[in-house]
Request: fold
Amino acid sequence: MTPEQIKQIEKGLNWTWGIVAQDLFSEGQPPMPRSHVIEVVLDADYLESYGQVPKETLKEFRKLDYNAQIKIAKEVFRASRYS
Reply:
């Protein structure tokens, strides 16, 4: 992936979390650890549905193994807990 594609993914991860978090926490979800936030954002096609990432960039991102995807997400989600 190019540095520009990584920036697009990082923005998409943030955007996706913003949308998903509203739903989760409006229903009383307790604070979530970083690992759960990353799992939620990477799973269930949320990034594809809400991330506003160009399709070619998403395609390249999803070609990465899951650990590589997590590594990128850890750069976005740095806090230990989210609420």
User: Anything to note?
Assistant: The chain has a mean pLDDT of 96. Residues 3-26 form the longest helix (24 residues).
